[in-house]
Design goal:
alpha+beta; Phosphorylase Kinase, domain 1; six-stranded mixed sheet; 25% helix
Length: 795
């Protein structure tokens, strides 16, 4: 018995996912922290707090550095050991009078060094050398970590730790240490403090400890629960609003509790002591630490380290301009992706970057911001937000439904290929022939009978054949909607691109599939000639002429020397091309393409629907201007050609386009509107933002994923940074606002229902404001972009 076809195995696998959707779990941001707060001084009233971090150097690498949060004029002090002062560390912790660093994490055997901060010039001591640590935490006068799921502490004198219990997380407080039991999520604490013996019951996902109390996040409900000394709890008890919200991290100090929400904004209690300063209250953070009354966090916009709270100079201080928010690791070893723009922090060599934490995928609808941003979906305003569990189940169900739809499409595609009933060109779904070739011939004859217009000339076949060396393969540069594209030089010196329809050898045997292909190519030729001969826009590829001699179907265009956007995004080796080498340049490129589509929808007479907007159909000229091309599948909105009333009967609107870019509403219902082009352009925007292919197979998985499914949940959860192309540095704070604005626009463009998408005029308006915001930032201005600008408003 022969094995089942691969697509049936894939369908079976997806069916299992539908029946048994995966659970959504939460985990801490970075179990190996790269920022820490140390307390230096003889007693609690005279302590000076130091913020410590791994700071990128001018060369390739980073160093361990500490700076005072109370004295901005004091120079940072660097800590290193060994010959040359190299610091191969990946984790930093600190406590009362000490600094400790461990690493490197990519090694099976690591080292941990200890510095006495009260004796700055004293050499460091090695306190550990052995198996890699999966987590580490510091506090009081000791440090603890997880070695093969066992808690191991150094300079610990406060009690006996268990040997036979495995833990998944560890947190060190003042005189106590707590851990989460692996598998059950149960909290257990050890030592001599009020937190011991008062642990909450149930399953928990996150854990943090401070001087006098500890906090954890209940799995499922998202409730933050704290326990420990009564006075500390009375001062730092989280607000009841915490219940049910997604949480990505918790930081605990001395009677201070801070939460990093699922949308990466911060809230702290008590507000009179540790409230987030207004200048950063609306910003997003990557990592968070607390010690005493001081809180420090790494801003997502530029990876700077800022601190606030009691004793901080001016109420808030930027301690370091750039720090590592997490440990560096080979990008290929990051199973859940990497933080955007983190590669330069790790030296930019060897493919190292900072891994994004696995396991934490809060449902987008649960991430309702407080004051930092408006809701990502305008229709959700004023509605009561459901619980995380309900949202998780709904999200899993919707995701399973999409997978089932994709599996069905894949099966149909494979069967059609196997039966030879249709052909594919780079993922394109061609319109099926709806009539015999004579109908296409009639349309062509009607068009040519009117004579060439003033901008399009008719070339003799002999000149085009000579210019291409008889259509030699050496002149071939690609393929289009209906044939092969060649590069050529005309006798007058013009560089042109010549698209030739597939030419059938009269002596070759005929077949139904070949006949269908020929009708398709004839229709595409007529469509492109008809449309491009009547339009003129700087962002549309210019049609120079055509040839219809001896049964040939050839179009001649201006030559685009810089190729396609797709090739520069996905095929070109480093360095990136100029229009992709910066975020403002990418936004300007997107604006040019959007203006071309707006022209077709709004100003062409009659309006034109392209039907195949995709990155391979956006070409770049000598000045890197984006130009939309390939109108072989395009349709006039009245579906007629120069008054030919019967043309619409000859070629009705049959589904056509390219897999991954096609409007799902159009594909399912054959309901074509200009919003179908908006959807396709939204996919192109997501390509530009993420650098991902529209459909991509990830290593270790045989299931391809669409860029829409991968990126939009993060964008709608106010985590645009999570999807940005890692080949570019993270946008500056000014650029980040504009890039996020365009991310929201892309998410609006790919909404399932066409009526919920913006028009191309609205798209152009949003991109113009985003580009202007980048330029104003360059000029020192302060542009403000509102999320609501992408919700159908052009004001």
């Amino acid at each position: 018995m022969s094995p089942p076809p691969p697509y049936l195995l894939l369908l079976s696998f997806l069916a299992l996912l539908v029946l048994f959707p995966p659970l959504l779990l939460a985990s801490s941001s970075f179990p190996l922290p790269t920022i820490a707060i140390a307390a230096v001084g003889a007693n609690a009233t005279s302590r000076n707090h130091l913020a410590c971090a791994l700071v990128p150097t001018a060369g390739a690498g980073y160093e361990l550095s500490c700076a005072s949060v109370a004295n901005r004029s004091a120079q940072p002090h660097n800590y290193s050991y060994g010959v040359g002062g190299s610091t191969p560390f990946s984790a930093v912790v600190a406590g009362d009078g000490y600094l400790c660093s461990a690493g490197p994490t990519e090694s099976q055997t690591i080292s941990m060094r200890w510095w006495d901060l009260n004796k700055r010039e004293a050499p460091s001591k090695r306190v550990y050398w052995g198996a890699a640590l999966s987590a580490v935490s510091g506090g009081g006068e000791y440090v603890c970590g997880l070695v093969e799921q066992r808690i191991k502490c150094w300079r610990w004198t406060s009690g006996v730790l268990p040997e036979g219990v495995g833990f998944s997380a560890v947190a060190v407080g003042g005189g106590f240490v707590c851990g989460l039991v692996a598998g059950t999520g149960e909290v257990r604490c050890y030592g001599d403090a009020d937190a011991v013996g008062r642990e909450p019951r149930g399953r928990h996902a996150l854990l943090a400890a401070g001087e006098r109390h500890a906090c954890a996040v209940k799995a499922g409900s998202g409730e933050v629960v704290c326990w420990g000394e009564a006075a500390a709890l009375a001062a730092a008890a989280p607000s009841p609003r915490v219940v049910g919200r997604a949480v990505s991290s918790v930081a605990v100090g001395d009677a201070v509790t801070c939460v990093l929400w699922g949308n990466w904004t911060v809230a702290c209690w008590p507000e009179e002591v540790a409230a987030v300063p207004p200048s950063v209250a609306r910003q997003q953070f990557v990592a968070l630490e607390a010690k005493g009354k001081v809180v420090c966090g790494v801003l997502m916009s530029d990876y700077s380290l800022v601190c606030w709270g009691g004793g901080v100079a001016g109420g808030m201080s930027k301690v370091f301009d750039r720090v590592l928010p997490g440990p560096c690791a080979p990008s290929a070893s990051c199973p859940c992706g990497v933080w955007s723009g983190s590669a330069p922090l790790c030296g930019g060599e060897g493919g190292a970057a900072i891994c994004y934490p696995c396991g934490y995928t809060p449902p987008p609808m649960a991430l309702t911001p407080t004051s930092n941003s408006s809701a990502p979906i305008s229709q959700s305003r004023g509605k009561r937000r459901p619980s995380d569990l309900v949202i998780a189940l709904i999200s899993a169900g919707i995701g399973s439904g999409f997978m089932a739809i994709f599996a069905a499409i894949l099966v149909v595609y494979c069967l059609r290929r196997r039966l030879g009933s249709s052909t594919q060109d780079s993922g394109r779904i061609h319109a099926e022939p709806t009539g015999p070739a004579p109908r296409v011939e009639r349309r062509l004859s009607a068009l040519l009978s009117k004579g060439p217009n003033t901008t399009v000339e008719q070339f003799p076949l002999v000149s085009l054949r000579a210019a291409t060396g008889g259509f030699s393969p050496s002149h071939r540069i690609g393929s289009g909607s209906f044939g092969t594209v060649y590069r050529a030089s005309l006798p007058d010196g013009r560089e042109v691109a010549i698209k030739r329809a597939e030419h059938r050898d009269p002596s070759a045997p005929s077949s139904s599939s070949a006949a269908a292909r020929r009708v398709n190519h004839e229709a595409a030729f007529v469509s492109e000639l008809t449309l491009l001969s009547r339009v003129n826009h700087k962002n549309l590829v210019r049609l120079l002429g055509f040839c219809a001699d001896g049964g040939e179907r050839i179009l001649v265009y201006e030559f685009m020397p810089n190729g396609t956007l797709h090739d520069h995004l996905h095929k070109r080796a480093a360095p990136l091309s100029p229009p992709l080498a910066s975020w403002p340049a990418r936004l300007r490129l997107a604006l040019g393409a959007a203006r071309a589509i707006e022209y077709m929808h709004t100003y062409a007479v009659p309006p034109i629907i392209h039907r195949d907007i995709k990155s391979p159909n956006i070409l770049l000229d000598t000045s890197w201007t984006a130009k939309v091309s390939d109108f072989g599948l395009s349709l006039l909105n009245d579906l007629s050609v120069d008054g030919d009333d019967n043309a619409s009967d000859d070629e009705p609107c049959v589904t056509a386009g390219t897999v991954g870019y096609m409007d799902p509403e159009y594909y399912r219902l054959q309901h074509l509107t200009d919003k179908s082009d908006v959807y396709s352009f939204g996919v192109v925007l997501l390509e530009l933002l993420s650098g991902c292919k529209v459909i991509q197979r990830f290593e270790g998985s045989g299931t391809p994923k669409n860029v829409v499914d991968v990126t939009v949940p993060h964008i709608e959860a106010d985590r645009v940074h999570r999807v940005l192309d890692i080949r570019l540095p993270l946008p500056t704070p000014g650029e980040m606002e504009a890039v996020a604005y365009v991310g929201y626009l892309a998410a609006d463009c790919v909404r399932p229902a066409g009526r919920d998408r913006p028009t191309m005029s609205e798209v152009v308006g949003v991109l113009e404001r985003a580009v202007a915001a980048c330029e104003e930032q360059d000029d020192g201005g302060d542009a403000v972009l509102s999320r609501s600008g992408t919700d159908g408003s052009t004001t």
